[in-house]
Amino acid sequence: MKYQVLLVEDEPITGNALRQALSSETIEGQGIDVAVAADGKAALDMIAPGKFDLVVLDLKLPQITGDEVLAALRKIDPYVDVIVYTNYQDPPVMKKLMNLGVAGYINKGADADLWATVEKIKARLAPVPDEERQSLAARSGLGE
Amino acid sequence: MNSGTSSTVEADGKSSARRPLAEQAIWDMRQRGRLADAIRRSELEADRKPDSLVFPKLTCDMYLQVGQPEQAGRWALEMLLRMWQTPPALFNEFARRFQRAAFRLDARGKAELIARLNEMIDDGRVHDRFIARCRALVSSSESYRTVPGGRTKEKTVSVKMPLQQQSPAPPALAAINAAPQYPNGIQHVVDSNTGAQFCEGLTAGILSPVALVNLAREMEATNASALERCIADIPLSSLTREELRPLVDFLLSFLERRERLEEALRLFKDHPRLQNSSHIQASFLRICRKLGRFDLIQEFVTRNPAVTKTDKFNLLYELVYFYEAQFDLERAREILSRIGDLFDTQQPILATLRNFYLRFGMFDDASRIDLRLADLREGRRPLKYQEAVAESQAEVYSDLEHQRQLAALSDMTNGISHELGQPITNIRYTIQLYRRQLESELKQDVVFSVFDTVLRETERMGGLVKRLAPVTSTRRVLENFDAVLRVQDRVKAERARLSERGIQVAIEAPKPIMMHADPVRFDQLISNLLLNSFDAISDLPREHAGWINIRLTSPGGRHLRMVFRDNGPGISPEHRRKIFEPFFSTKPPGRGEGLGLFIVWNLLKMQGGSISLDSTYTRGARFIVLLPTETKLTAKPIEP
């Protein structure tokens, strides 16, 4: 059963690269399916409760802010894991996001590292025992 | 603003943490016995901050300390003048000092001090809620003659403890206590639950109305709710005898103090003869304002048109608020102007006026008042302090401008971070992805496509930098040039791009318009506007015959007025507010970063101009650009 990831990203090149990279990976023999939504509206059309194992959400989307999308997503699926990633850190928005329940945060921009991002996503998806996951997260900079 | 704080532990063991710098300096000087310096510094600070009560209070205290009650009295009055918007409890701070000063003055000095206070009240420069108490203060001061060789003032180092004063029972109380009908004196009246006894005091003539007022005042001070209960039973509308006027006057302000505004209003309506007094009128306006009854204020102003020409500050003050609430800025401005003319030498009023101007965003007027304030201070101050004055006055309104610019700058830098981050991420991810793929097999076409992507993204970054240049460059070269010719040149320069898309450009200009401005910035302005229209029209199908129309005039000769029209899709209502914001774009990423109009806006602002969108124009987009023909360094933006 492949893992289902929803990637919300408006930059085609970035989105494509991440999709290709994730699709080429496996977790304990299971592959990863990546659906890409180019804006918030598309994301809301695609999501349904329990449909995805993980949402990777770019914060700066056209015409709607990431936290607004997240709030709307949460209304449909209150429990799905969400990792936000962006090259743009806005402290007030970060606070709002933490309140909405975000599993982690990844930096793009000048420090963008495609394969490290993939590892973090895999770490979130994989059924790893808690302590191991926590130490993994700590090593890769993901807040838990 | 210089509000630095310092924190030291004093010799007496008390920490002076969080005491502002000026106060700390004054404290130090006092500890060292340099009282004259401390007083001078305190006066300076009081002048610099016409809203502050701290320094007049401090100055008054120090003058009392060095035995100069005349100066102390003056500074106590200054406190009162500044207590326009402070909590009523602070009245005691003024009253205490006034009394101390008055006590120490000889008969002539005291008479002068009292005369000055009365004058302030008559001019309407004292807030109405304090007037009753001021009158009481005056009458009690008048009643006590300074005994020659009287109490010697104790020298005290600590200025924190005010001198305790025992005041003998004021006259009215004494009268009550002596009256045979009230064997238990004041207690009897206070305990009574009905106004009947109060009225009996009136009708039986035991107490004159004035004494009644004094009695009521004391009751307010000792047991206000008992007084409330007393007057609850008085048929207030029956108190129509002229001689009862002082009592009704008092009751009106008492009701306002107790927040029984509706009743106060009724009382006002029932006593038309009261309405001639400007204090009462100001109270009425204030009560209506608190109740939101602007209809009543309107009625009043209609019935008494002369009120707008009053020379009483308290009335003018209320009228400003009224016109502001009615969005009648024109009239509000007239009133403000009148205040400025009438009270040209009164610093606290000018400070209040300045704050009004700031509230209404009228920065030119605010700075004019600041200059006037500085002039007034200049007369009293040695030359070396002038810099401090100039500094503090510039701070006030430039702070607001500065904050706005900082906010705009912060938006822009955030946007830039993101905009640069996108192509950077694209480049990195692309390289990182294909690096792995190419480890197994090196395919030339894959390598070349990676290179192409990288090049394209760097162009995107470069384009961003280039578009930002007009906003970031600081070199300014002013030249004389004809705006019309310059616009024509710009259009010619873009001809290739425009004609490729079949866009016609028409320039309407009845005559040359000479500018003395930065030609490079002007070019950037026109280019950005052209490109903005070009981009908009390009969104429409090729068959659509696009045109751009630029009309240049110079009404009045001091400004260039450009109307920039295109027949593109126009700007939808929900986007109208945002089009001048940085990085707002309706285009997909990579095509137009949404900087054009933001840059235009900034360029204009830098040169004292402005741009606005005509929201009634439906055939495309219509922008109105205003630009002074003569660029000045500190030009304020013009509103179209």
Structural description of this entry:
The complex is a heterodimer of chains A (144) and B (640). Chain A is of the alpha/beta class and 144 residues long. Helix content of chain A is 44%, strand content 24%. Chain A is built from 6 helices and 8 strands. Chain A has a 6-stranded mixed beta sheet with strand order 2-3-1-4-7-8. In chain A, strands 5-6 form a two-stranded antiparallel ribbon. The longest helix of chain A is centred in the N-terminal third of the chain and has 12 residues, at 12-23. Chain B has 26 helices and 9 strands. In chain B, strand 6 and strand 7 (559-566) form a beta hairpin. The model of chain B is unreliable at 1-18, 145-174, 181-196, 381-386 and 633-640 (pLDDT under 50). The chains are: A alpha/beta (144), B alpha+beta (640). The interface between A and B is medium-sized, with 20 and 19 residues.
Structure characteristics:
heterodimer; A: 144 residues; alpha/beta; six-stranded mixed sheet; two-stranded antiparallel sheet; 24% strand; B: 640 residues; alpha+beta; five-stranded mixed sheet; disordered N terminus
Please write out the topology:
The complex is a heterodimer of chains A (144) and B (640).
Chain A: E1 3-8, H1 12-23, E2 26-27, E3 30-37, H2 40-46, E4 54-58, E5 60-61, E6 64-65, H3 66-76, E7 81-86, H4 91-100, E8 104-107, H5 114-125, H6 130-140
Parallel strand pairs in A: 1-3, 1-4, 4-7, 7-8
Antiparallel strand pairs in A: 2-3, 5-6
Helix pairs in contact in A: 1-5, 2-3, 3-4, 5-6
Chain B: E1 5-6, E2 19-20, H1 21-31, H2 35-48, H3 54-65, H4 69-82, H5 91-104, H6 107-122, H7 128-143, H8 171-178, H9 186-191, H10 195-203, H11 209-232, H12 245-257, H13 261-270, H14 278-291, H15 294-303, H16 313-325, H17 329-342, H18 347-359, H19 363-378, H20 386-440, H21 444-472, E3 479-482, H22 483-493, H23 495-500, E4 504-508, E5 514-517, H24 519-538, E6 547-553, E7 559-566, H25 573-576, H26 596-606, E8 610-613, E9 621-628
Parallel strand pairs in B: 4-6
Antiparallel strand pairs in B: 1-2, 3-5, 6-7, 7-9, 8-9
